[in-house]
Structure formats: structure tokens, C-alpha cells
Structure prediction request, 490 residues.
Amino acid sequence: MERTMNKVIDEARQGEVLVKESSIPAGKKFYLESYGCAMNFSDSEIIASIMIGMGFQTTSTTDDADVIFLNTCAIRDNAEQRIWARLKDFRQKKRKNPSLIVGVLGCMAERLKIELLEKEKLVDIVVGPDAYRDLPNLVSAAGSGQKAVNTLLSREETYAEISPVRLGSNGITAFISITRGCDNMCAFCVVPFTRGRERSRDPESIVNEARELFEQGYREVTLLGQNVDSYLWWGGGPKKDLPEDKAHAALSHKLPEEEQKQFTTFADLLDKVALVNKKLRIRFSTSNPRDMTDAVLYVMAQHENIAKYIHLPVQSGSTNVLEKMNRGYTRQQYMDRIESIRQILPGCALSTDIISGFCSETEEEHQETLSIMEWAGYDYAYMFKYSERPGTLAARKYADDVPEEVKSRRLTEIIDMQKKLSLISNKRDIGITVEVLVESNSKRSEDHLSGRSSEAKVVVFPRKNFKPGDYVRVKITDCTGGTLMGEALD
Ligand code: 5AD
Ligand code: SF4
Prediction:
């Protein structure tokens, strides 16, 4: 039965799923382009696994693709504008080849399903981050000329047992997703709307994935979640029976021992993954200043193979702005977290996220951001201009009233500050020896290798007889703001 466009869009509005049998002729190819955060890139590996399971092959060019997927990001307006521009690139291709299927997946699909389907007939499939298991039905529906949509969010989906297909991998480093969604409701952030409620993945499936990766030759895994510190798994029965206050106490390791044992917190998980093998280096992202416990820091201190690096987004250095952002900590509380890190993990590297020009941010408040950066001495930072996202708390409650040129000027000051701090941090490393996990040849020259130290700094050094996957002790002799240069000792 043919469905009209309006009917399909109506169903999309109601969150109904289109279901059809899948039958993919041999030799069909899909092309997948990913945008946004590491979590999205990790999702692309699930998407690839499902598509290959259907009989598709991957292709690295759009020219011979039967299906083109964009796995999109909605975090800032410019991320979405890039996708619209990219979709227009494909218009000509669709005219030449009417059977070409173009799909928008991920966060933007969740946010803009109706517009995506209506606008200029650019898109055939729209799939939200929790609906990738439905791809066989959706691709098949699109193949028979129908528009296919599934943007249902789930409270359970973690794709736990789907083996990701490692895309564009260097064979050494890989992502493992440990939670999905976010319950934090930071005022500026669209993620709770695009990725839904937070849920944790079964620890056993995480440890198994880490073990399999190690056996395949991988030497570093990054555990991913919007807020890794709220990871919580309960082995005591169906989730619906778990009272909220118990979960809360378990997260901060405050239950009596016997009861606490039924739970796996992030600290417990980190410990389990670190025990997979001493030669497997563990990273994680993103930590949350409100939720990070000392227990995590102690586990990091216990295991040499857990990287001494924490990404701890501050967003702003002003308590007033933090309160409006609904971040759940003050400037002082954030500084106290860093003090604990310094005490328990001396030398641990720190990076952060910063937003310039959030609603009504004053010049003094901006200065507080610069001063907390200097105080923390971040090794690295990701810095953004505030971009209002429809539907968020900030969009509903506050005016986006910092003029564009003021946002830009403040962002430039923040970037200049970070450049200074990164250079100081790198210069401090000259003369010390770091352990580098080699990832690849250096871009600069065939005679050099490139890798990262435990502190996540990029290190380049003459190759000698080393190769990707080796751990090498490198004495640092020189640096730029972004790279350390050195000589291998071993
Ligand atoms: N505008 C600008 N930056 C944002 N971020 C999240 N939402 C917005 C927004 N609306 C930044 C935050 C977050 C990082 C992933 O992106 O700094 O930590
Ligand atoms: Fe990742 Fe957030 Fe962008 Fe979604 S909106 S891809 S969660 S950064």
C-alpha cells in the first residue's frame, strides 16, 4: 500500500514505526558520514554493523553509494547548517539517480524530523539515535519509494550486544559506549531532547567488548557517556524496583557493603575494565563536576593503565552563570573538585569545555571564566560561542542577549588564554619522559611516529624500530602549543 507523504509525516509526529520486510540485493553499498561528538562516531559503528548485517557493503565515496547516511549533530546551529548544505550537495545526485536513498540519522534527525522530510525532498529516511535497530525496515520502505521515519526514544536501548564495526580505525584505539542519553538538563543543551533519558549498559558486555578489542590488537579504549559519573548498573532485580534514593546512595558508594555490592558504579566499572589487561590503556569522557566522586580518582590512582587525564567541562567560571546554566555546582565547588584531582592524582592532565556569551553574561562574569582557566591551568580546552537551541531551558527562560560581536571577542580572549596555557603546559614537559602509545605514522614525515602520552598529549618522535601499538618511553626535547617532540629511550 502506498503511503502519502502527509500520512508518513503524521505518523512521524505520533512516533509510529513503519515496518516492512527487508531484502537487499547483493552488492548494494552504503556511505556514512559522521558529525559531532565521539558518541556519534561510536553510534556510526553500530549503524555500520546493522547495515552490513543486512547485506550492504561500505563505500568511502558517495559516487557509487546506493544509500548515503549522514549521522548528524544538533549541538549548535552551525552544526545543523553544515548538514543542510551537505544535503543540498546530494540534490543533483538524486536527480540523476532517483533510486539513491539519502538518510539523516542522529541528533538532528531527532530534533527536525518534520522539516527534514518536508524540505525540498532532500531526505528519504530519518532515524533518531535510539532507532537504529529499525534500519532494515526503514531502508526497505525507502527502497520502495516511501518516506521512512523512526525517531522514537527509548528508556532501555543500549545496543549492548551489537558488535560495532570499527570504521576508519587505526586498529589501536577504539570507543566503547557505556551510557546513552542524559538526565542533567543543562539549560543550554539540546542533548536530553535528542538522545533522551540516561541509561547504562550492562558492565559484562562492556568488559567483554574491551577484552575482544585487546585480543584484536587494540591497545586503548575510551569509555563514552554524556556523563560517565552517573553510570550505574543494578544486579539486584528489574530496574523498575530500584528506588530513586537507593540509586542515589549507590552512586556515592554510601550503601552498606552487602547492598553496595549489587551495584556497579563508574568507579567499579573503571576498575573492571582496567583489569582486562595492563597493556590496555583506558580513557573516559565526559566527567561531570557535579557527579565525579573521589572513588573514581582512587581507582585511577590504583591502575597505571588508566590514563592520567580528565575532561571536566567547566562551561563558565562564574557562579551566577553556572546557576543559570543549571550546572549544579558553584565556582568554588568546581575548584574543590580540581583540588581533589591534584591531591589524589598529582600530574593528571585536565581539559575542559567553555561557552562564551551565555544569556546576559556580563564582562565581570567573562573575566571570571578567564581567571578560572588560568587558575586551573588547563592542558587543553574546547571553546564555543553560545548558540541558542530551540526547546532548551535557556531558550524558554532567558534572552540570547549578548551581541554576536561581544560573544566573538570573548571567545577570542578565551582561545588566546588557552593557547598560552597549552604552551606553558607543553614547555613544562621538556626534559621529562612520558609513555607514548604509538597510533600511526606522523603526518609530518614517514621517519617519525605519532602517539599520545597518558596525559593525552600528542607526541612525535623518530621511528627507529617502533610501530603502531607499541608503548614507548619518550624523552621530550621540544614542543609547540599542540605537540610534544622527543626521542625514544627504549
Ligand atoms: N551552545 C554552545 N555550546 C554548547 N555546548 C553544548 N550546548 C551548547 C550550546 N547551545 C558545548 C558545551 C558542551 C559541549 C559538548 O558543547 O560546552 O560541554
Ligand atoms: Fe553528540 Fe550532542 Fe552533537 Fe548529539 S548533539 S552528536 S550528543 S554533541
